[in-house]
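Recall the central idea of this unit: under ordinary conditions, the amino acid sequence of a chain determines the structure it adopts. In this exercise we apply that idea directly, starting from the sequence alone.
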Amino acid sequence: MTGYAVATSESAAGTLTIEIKSVNSRFLDLQFRINDDLRALEPDLRAAVMAAITRGKVEVRLSFGRKAAGAGTQALNLDLLADLARMQAEVGLHFAVATPMSVAELLRWPGVVEEAQVGQESLQADVGRLGTRTVGAFVESRQREGAALEAMLITRIEAMEVIVKRITPLIPQVVAAFQQKAIERMQDALGLACQGSNAAVSRQDAMERIRQEVILYGIRIDVSEELSRLSAHLGETRHILKKGGQVGKRLDFMMQELNREANTLGAKASVKELADASMDLKLLIEQMREQVQNLE
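Accordingly, the structure predicted from this sequence is:
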């Protein structure tokens, strides 16, 4: 499920920013974009995100923008200056014509001028508070999208229920019509309709056998049980959505079951109306399956 949230926090040392965004994924895939000097803060932030969500490809960015140095916030690194003076003296022993470093060059030397360090404990506490706020906003954004997805899924369920309701009364008529037509065709094929009275016994036996075969085949094309299971699965899917919580994996399973019944309906379809209904059901189920994979 997609989601996005960003939050900032101001302190005397600088600006702390946490950004969280996610795209659809069946599993949880966490990626962190953090500067090396803040890497120690990742575990707590990772734990906060994992406690809130279970699905999605999630990217978390943590940055800290230090404020411009002010009075009293900078100091010289005396140890580094001493090392530079010692190395400059050694160089002078070998190269008498070497020009000593100027004050400007010394001040530009990396590490000579130090800024006041931000306390690790203070920064960690700030990240904890800001992380809680950002994760909360991120979850809310996903909940809003989840509500929209739920509405879409409900409309697909309603459309499938209409299809099931429309074709259910047709099943007895389809089976009866098929059986009657099959009996007539088999009678014609066997020539029973033209037999005389002397063949009454054999005709009666043949008709009984025909009826048995037709009834058995009629049972095989009867999809009343599949439609009943479809209705039950649709009701359970609606119940799962209404109950809420972590529904993704349960809905994945329901999509498998709905697709199974729709495929069986298509395989048993003996008239165009049932074949068309099977195709319509599978199209709606596929639309639901694509979105179900986005739900937690």
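The longest strand covers residues 56-66.
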